[in-house]
TrEMBL record:
Transmembrane feature ranges: none
Domain ABC transporter: 4-222
Organism: Kribbella ginsengisoli
PANTHER family xrefs: ABC TRANSPORTER RELATED, IMPORT ATP-BINDING PROTEIN
Name of the protein described by the UniProt record: ATP-binding cassette domain-containing protein
One function term, GO molecular function aspect: ATP binding
């Protein structure tokens, strides 16, 4: 059972002489419950591919489909959560408000979203920061809030774009612990883009991006 499929997907930014092809002819399937690392250097197309998988970017050509999810983009957004690479918290909102926001915007009642958010903040180890503003948080704390916000959606597909890229080794390891545990609890597929081999080694599969092209592992016994 696949939660997302890409069929010959490409994404180009700009036009004419200024056009840049970020993703070339990508075809792949992500199964329910998968644990996948997308590895590659900066600028290799990892982030663009994750945004295509999430439905945040539309392909220039090819198709992305979500066979198990609702057809409506708003309803589908309840099943797909993204943890972005850089700071993505709204500075005027406190930690609890930031954590609740995505679930409320996708139709969850505020009381239920708040209940989920408090559980998620406890799960990521920062229950005491609910009233703090983002400017008072460390990088690791802010990334944990971003993970908690994603978990509040109760997604079936969890996408994380370089979630440890701006963190020290210890904090990065803790963030990955939280992501893996959350995916297990939710029964969600987890896809993490990373340039860090230590992060990639924690996932069951490693796919590689080079110059916008996706290279899948060769299965044992394949010709």
């Amino acid at each position: 059972m696949s939660v997302v499929r890409c069929a010959d997907v490409a994404r180009t930014f700009g036009h004419g002489d200024r056009a840049v092809v970020a993703v070339h002819g990508c075809s792949c399937e992500i199964a329910a419950g998968a644990r996948i690392a997308i590895t590659g250097a900066s600028g290799s197309g990892k982030s663009t591919l994750l945004h295509l998988l999430a439905g945040l970017e539309k392909p220039t050509s090819g198709t992305v489909s979500w066979p198990e999810f609702a057809a409506s983009p708003l309803e589908r957004a309840r099943d797909i959560a993204v943890v972005f690479q850089g700071p993505s918290l709204l500075p005027a909102l406190d930690v609890l408000e930031n954590t609740v926001m995505a679930a409320v915007l996708t139709g969850t009642a505020e009381e239920e979203a708040t209940r989920r958010a408090l559980v998620a903040l406890d799960d990521v180890g920062i229950p005491g920061l609910v009233d703090q503003l983002p400017e008072t948080l460390s990088g690791g704390q802010a990334q944990r809030v971003a993970v908690a916000r994603a978990l509040t959606l109760r997604p079936r597909l969890l996408l994380a774009d370089e979630p440890t890229g701006q963190l020290d080794e210890g904090t990065g390891r803790q963030v990955m612990d939280v992501l893996l545990a959350a995916a297990d609890t939710l029964g969600a597929a987890l896809v993490v883009s990373t340039h860090d081999p230590a992060v990639g080694d924690r996932l069951d599969e490693q796919w590689q991006m080079r110059d916008g092209r996706l290279f899948l592992p060769v299965l044992d016994g394949a010709s």
